[in-house]
User: What shape does this take?
Amino acid sequence: MSILVTRPHPDNEATADNLRARGHAVLLAPALKLEPVAFQGESDVSYDAVLVTSANAIRTVASQLSDLGLLQLPLFAVGEHTAAAAREAGFAEVIVAGGDAASLRDKVMQSARDKVLKKKSALLYLAGADLSRDLGGELGAEGFRVVTQTTYRMAPVKHLPREVCEGFAAHGIEAVLHYSRRSARAFLDAARDEGVEISALAIPHCCLSETVAGVLREAGASQVLVAATPDETALFDSLERALRTRLA
Assistant: This one.
């Protein structure tokens, strides 16, 4: 029996390694594919800090960061995974929020109250094309000047890998991990198109947040678990709970 990971490449490989280290067999079915967007940053624009809500936003522009003078700025990362990508890209000062855009907004506002940032700081938000929250607008309402630069988009993958379809047909997949609302929707669309939707919805689905879980529940999944906090460790804990329940 295998755990199905719908997370996009390359992060799905690290997830698979972590699951195998826990003794699980793994199948990969990236539901979204990364497509870089040309970065229109201007080297003569002065920013006070950088905001990032995804590691992909950094990876797609990593080669340009030094020339744009951004690596010398403090970077506010949505969570530890994104923070690690920022450090790898060369950012020395990385401030880590609690795992979602709301906590990132609060971290920036707290930094202003602590006088780490000026109240009307200019912030560069490196973002994906599809945003679930208007972080720039919320911080703008608090007096910050936020410039949002789209650096990538995630395109839905239309088909599931053959071994995944065969796994559903043979009842060889025991749970699915979901990391975003868009990838959950893309996975469901692909499962429907492949004719394995009924089998897919009959097993546990472990989701990084309640927002993601809502997509699965709306589709008819009856075994939906939500991580206690929006991080992979908590997601794996929800997976273990699901598997114990199935064995009970």
Observations:
- The chain has a mean pLDDT of 93.
- The radius of gyration is 19 Å.
